[in-house]
Structure formats: structure tokens, C-alpha cells
Amino acid sequence: MGIDLAKATFDFCLLSRDGAVLWRGRFTNDASAIRQFLAQLEGGRWKPSLIHFALESSGVYGKALIGALHQVALAVSVLNPAQVKYFAFSVLRRTKNDRVDAELIARFCRERKPLATRPLRPVEEQLKLLVHERESRVGEQNRERSRAKKDPFQISLPALISHQGQYRLNQLQKEITQLDEAINELIASDECLKTQSKLLCSIPGIAETTAAKLLSELAGKEFQSARRLAAYAGLTPSEFLSGVSSYGKTHLSKIGNAFLRKALYLPAAVARRWCKPLRPWVTLLEKRKLTDLAIRGAIMRKLLHIAFGVLKHQTPFDPSLVFMPKTV
Hints:
This protein is an alpha/beta fold.
């Protein structure tokens, strides 16, 4: 079933295994209408447990519907809108409206079989909110620090502006410290999160703050392999070759979760310096005369692979298990 969400309404389209339209319609996007939608679904001639629901990520607009579907243990996939957009190009869509989009999303779900997410536990929801709120405060702090610096023309700031800027920086630092404490307390209160955080912190370069970021972003997602996780984070290589023509250098695709990439950027620098098992591999990258930025991207992907392994097998980081290829 494909669902096209809007602020006030949502359209849906249910397809059979062979692609025939079985049921379609529209409901208002509010709690009572969502209950009515689920009631009609239960009373219909289809088993809801056999239906794979798919909808585009739409922020707060889809939160109530996704929560209602998760609450009754139905398979739901929240899609990147870019996936649906380019799928529409591939099938030569000529008309765009909510009704057509719902069927298009259903066709995408039927053909591509995207990963279904599980509902987040309340503690995971809180962790996600706290981590993103902390990231917002850090961004404000960085902007305020940049404003506090003298400009290229060496114009000194008036005393009042400097005083207010310093006051804001002190206030932001207090708020970040409070958020760090709240995040640590939340993780410590849940045995599962506590165990996972300790496993991630066993990896050189990853400390409590980065572990919290990884756990908040990976919550509810179950990847089948480390390669899929790296693709989700946009840390897979991207090259442009056609015949004998090459268009630019190979680089990171960056088609994926930017928050995960940002969370691993500084830990990669620490791991390059302090993680001894990675040094032979990093040396091979250096011999290939890769830039420092390219090497850091490769280490970010390696750290994500290692994080996937320790979480999947529930064992701390083991340096002897780090795979070192002869050629890179």
C-alpha cells in the first residue's frame, strides 16, 4: 500500500501481488480519520499483517499515521522522497497528483521491497530528540564563536556586542552540558542502550557523545549488512565512468544520512591517529597518494562497518578481527 501524505489529508492505494489496484481512497490526516482508516482496513477482505505500507518521509505530517500503523504491528517503510521522485522518472510518469502519487509509491514498494522499520521505543524517541537538540545548540555555539572573531578588516567589536556574545556562548555551553547529562542519564536508565553504548565506546575514536548520535540514528532500523548501512550513510564511493571517459575523481556519494556522516567526521581523525589496527590499512591509502579528506572518508566508512559488527554480534571491538586488505 502506498500512502501520499499532505498536511490535511492522505491518499492511499493498495496493490495486489500482480499490480492490480484493490483499494484506494482518501482520508483527512487527523486522529479520528486514521482510526476510521484502520477500522476499514481490519474489516476489509485483506489481512493487514500481509500488507507492506510505504510512504514518503514528511516530518510531523506523517508522525500520527506512522505511529498508528506501528502500534498495531504493521510493516511500514518510510521512504526518501528522492527515491520515489527518480522512480517516477524511470516509469515515465506524465501526471502528478495525490491519487497518482499514492499508486506510484505502492508500485515502488511492490518492486523495490524497501526495508520496514520497527516502532521506536519511548526511550529511543527521547534519545533522538535530545541528541538533535544538542546538535542544534552546538551549531548555534559555532555560529556565535564565528561572529565573535574579528573580521578580515580588523574592526574591533563594541564592548556591548562582545559582552552579549560572550554571555550567549556561556549560556549555550551550560545548555549543552545539561543536554549531555540528560543523554547520559537516559542511556544509563535503559539496559539495552547502555550495553550498546559500551560496545560502541570500545571502538577507538568513538566516545559517549558519538555513540549516542549513532544509537539515535540507527534506532528502529535493521540493516542486513554493513555495506547497506554505509550506503544509508552516504559513505559509499561514487565514480563516473563511461567507456574510456572519466568524469572527475571518485568521491563519496553523500546520498544518505548527513547526520551520521557528520557524527563520524571527527572520530575518524582520532581513529587515524590512535587506532593501531587501522594503521597498516591507512598506510596503504597514503601510498596511493589519496588526499587527507579521502582517507578520512574511508576511515569513516570503516568505523561504521566496525560499529555494525560490534552491535550485531554484541561483542566489544576486537583489534584482531579488523580486516586488512592487501590492496585497497
